[in-house]
Amino acid sequence: xxxxxxxxxxxxxxxxxxxxxxxxxxxxxxxxxxxxxxxxxxxxxxxxxxxxxxxxxxxxxxxxxxxxxxxxxxxxxxxxxxxxxxxxxxxxxxxxxxxxxxxxxxxxxxxxxxxxxxxxxxxxxxxxxxxxxxxxxxxxxxxxxxxxxxxxxxxxxxxxxxxxxxxxxxxxxxxxxxxxxxxxxxxxxxxxxxxxxxxxxxxxxxxxxxxxxxxxxxxxxxxxxxxxxxxxxxxxxxxxxxxxxxxxxxxxxxxxxxxxxxxxxxxxxxxxxxxxxxxxxxxxxxxxxxxxxxxxxxxxxxxxxxxxxxxxxxxxxxxxxxxxxxx
Length: 327
What we know:
Blueprint: H1 2-39, E1 49-57, H2 61-73, E2 78-83, H3 90-99, E3 103-107, H4 114-125, E4 129-134, E5 139-143, H5 149-153, E6 161-169, E7 189-191, E8 198-203, H6 215-218, E9 222-226, E10 229-233, E11 236-237, E12 262-267, H7 272-279, H8 294-301, E13 304-307, H9 315-322
Parallel strand pairs: 1-2, 1-4, 2-3, 6-11, 6-12
Antiparallel strand pairs: 4-8, 5-12, 6-8, 7-13, 9-10
Helix pairs in contact: 2-3, 2-9
């Protein structure tokens, strides 16, 4: 009887939580969204940079060049890179970009302080760029119908933040990573649906509501004035719905990516040799990183039932920019 009672209590709590979340989302998408659409202003600022990325990294030297070159290809103007105690040859990779004023390098020797790095970046550099995103070195923004991120963002410039949910990529059964190839050229197996978390483009006209919670990393909540009151507003998704973090992705198809026009490809595992090393490595954020658990690997890998090649449309353009292809 006690087990039955406890189960009913849990069901009631879950239902109550779902109702509250639904009512919150309804409020955001009626009152708040209506206000933004009617009274929100387009961004008329001319900044030093239009689109920038912030990355905190530790021992990512083999992957930094590709990550930089790819995002330059899709229209990112500048990068704020926070070095978290790397002991590899990252400076050899970054020096040309630093010398070319493409990368601003900040030494960040503090343990498990990723969110503090984001706060430092936003407080010190937001006035240089219209848009910024806090991205990781295994994440790549992929526009579908336009050539640059900046073009895509024009339709959202009234909003304080836009969340792009992850498209999760696995090993594809590869035991060893091929270092002669780019990451984006050798991993194609992925989930057939969006992951419930992702990364945001942040409109620097607005304040980030809180740096001390998980939201700032995946689904940034922003301060936005409505009726003269500063509201804490979750990010809008690319389908036009303001959604809570960790909840249903409103407007997205149940399966597949048919309506989406922007993706955040997350190459979570790469090949087994890369992932198995990361399982034993310290993390820029977590003391006890989720990657260290074998069940986390299988959770990600077993959902990879789909193949995706959208990012390949940028290969040639990237290699021309890199000087690999001469025209």
